[in-house]
Amino acid sequence: MRWDNLTAPPVEGDPERAAPATPPLPLALPGAVARTFDTPEFAGMTFYEVQAKSIINRVPGQSRVPFEWTINPYRGCSHGCVYCLGGDTPILMADGRTKPISELEPGDRIYGTERRGAYRRYVVTTVLDKWSTVKAAYRVTLEDGTTLIASGDHRFLSERGWKYVTGAMHGSNRRPYLTTNNRLIGTGRFAAGPKESPDYRRGYLCGMVRGDAHLGTFSYSYGVVHRFRLALCDDEALSRSERYLAHEGVATQRFTFTQASTGRRAMTAIRTSKQRDIETITDLIRWPVDPSDDWRLGFLAGIFDAEGSCSRGVLRITNSDDAILDQTTEALRRFGLSFVLEDRGQPNRVREIRLTGGLAARLRFFHLTDPAITRKRSIEGAALKHQTALRVVDIQALGLELPLWDITTGTGDFIANGVVSHNCFARNTHTYLDLDAGADFDRKVIVKVNAGELVRRELAAPKWRGAHVAMGTNVDCYQRAEGRYRLMPQIIAALRDFANPFSILTKGTLILRDLPLLREAAEVTRVGISYSVGFVDEQLWRSVEPGTPHPRRRLDAVRALADAGFPVGVLMAPILPGLSDGDESIDATVSAIAAAGATSVTPLALHLRPGAREWYAHWLAREHPHLVPRYRELYRAGAYAPQAYQRELTARVRIAARRHGLHRAELGDNRSLPEPPPPPAAEQLTLL
Where is region (Disordered) located (predicted)? Predict the structure, then answer.
């Protein structure tokens, strides 16, 4: 189709900041709606919503693909990838603790943010993927001493919106960037957590037992009874106490203290009645003459788990015992935590220690002391507010290339060392199937908002004969924008209703959202699903495809689809001459593909069409200069490697497939492909 056939009327009163685009428009889109979204994952992007006139498109006759018709609801791709933070940057986890970004894994629960009303608020989200690369590093220093090691392409949330670490006012690098006039949004640097030393364990037990346990030796007419019992609703604190006591040689027994009832949670308890155990516990909780910092941190964690609360943005510790209150306030002062002690004159002399300083102080308390009970550490729904002390004071190029990490999250952002950080999202480094001569768009994405309606209309047309339709062959139909526009469920439903065969090629995991529809379609027509995985070598992936989802994550999705009953084929592409075409690499990749439950593997050698060829040539000369002569020879005739090389590659993949029980590798045989036509005399087709 041609872009001058696309139109779209403005949307009246749309709350999502839609506005009619004004000429001249990219790709000559008269009347398109230019839409931006105030969410981190789409910052800096424009979506041109158009009313397409056709949606089922015929593939150009010269293309080397085994299908004739395609559906592409998007033109351009909202996948994008920048690599950002040093591996030791602490990330705020959903349990209130922190973890270095390099140790995060897909599926981990962390904090992100979303706008609710007048404020952006903390919400729990999920790590969807993780990447790393080596890039030039910068140190960003804030007024409160927070430091962040990041690439120049990384973005942080400032009082003036998202800003890159580096940029320029003019020229090709023009973009919003940080200056010393900016303040970042967040709480500032996270405190280091405590070490689980003997003093920390003793301090924790002192706070917990004195705050919430029953301990003593009692004389009765029938004799002396020794008793220790600790009953709690929260198993995290009970398990920690049980473990710490066991470390001191005190073995306890668990039992149900009270059953759950309406409005009341169940309580579980630990106990012992041995005299030696009671004496040991009594000794463990004695007040130290000169408490160490580790003991104080443990005590604060224990007394908070026993007698503390944190609700509506207020952290409190309540008790009536003078010694407990004195030890608590002394420990808070020791670590620079401000508080007020409130005595409301209650008959039981219960007083309240209330922490002051807002969310930053609460997080500092949690990170310094590490209480066990997760629910008390929640900051879900808390508002982000400007912190004066988070002014940028210095941005320094380190003059080094360092390993840097980034993640994809459900909210599009995460909390890195106390400031809101933009996340990374996957982008295909190359397009391997030459279906379209136009450029791929990273920042300007065409969205055919009427795709579902058009598919139904064109499938119902008398001239349509029910031919197979391929999707995801130009740009990924399950790119990130699909999460917002949800065009694929409409398209799949239409194909299902007309029992029209179709296939999908993707690298994403969003396809799993549509499993119910795919199952329904598979009951009435042929449904093919394929993934693209060229190699599984992590070092090579980080070097040549750092912006794409990790190969193992793609294979996890293959397994999920296979478990759902779909035969999933894997396009083993691109196979890189001299880098991933060795027997060891082929065997490892085919083995992983077979283990994921794929039903077939289709090998495809690297295809260097214009645009991709220039990028790859630059990378190859920098990273593997010894391979440049070989690539000149292989690709001297055009974008494809010679047929002899392709046939030999296919044969070796077929052997590996049979070795690993995957007997359908012959589906990927390239021998039927015609030789590429000779180039015009004036065209420069050498790689370099």
Answer: 1-24, 665-688
Output the pTM of the full model.
0.56
Token pair, residue 316, equals 């409190």
Q: What percent of the chain has pLDDT over 90?
A: 49
Per-residue DSSP letters for 535-562? ---HHHHHHH-TTSPPHHHHHHHHHHHH
Residue 456 has, within 13 A of its CA and on its CB side, a CA count of: 10
Q: How much is the pLDDT for 210?
A: 96
What are the residues whose beta carbons fall under 8 Å from the beta carbon of 655, sequence distance 6 or more?
none
* pLDDT of 534 over the 50 cut: yes
| Residue 318 near residue 353, CB atoms below 8 Å | yes
The per-residue pLDDT for 198 is: 95
- Of 3.10.28.10, 3.30.1360.70, 3.30.470.20, 3.40.50.970, the CATH number of 198-377 is 3.10.28.10
Q: Judge contact between 650 and 671, C-beta under 8 A.
A: yes
Rounded to whole angstroms, how far apart are CA atoms 247 and 383? 41
3-state secondary structure of 268: strand
Cα–Cα separations (whole angstroms), residue 580 to 212, 307, 505, 639: 61, 59, 22, 18
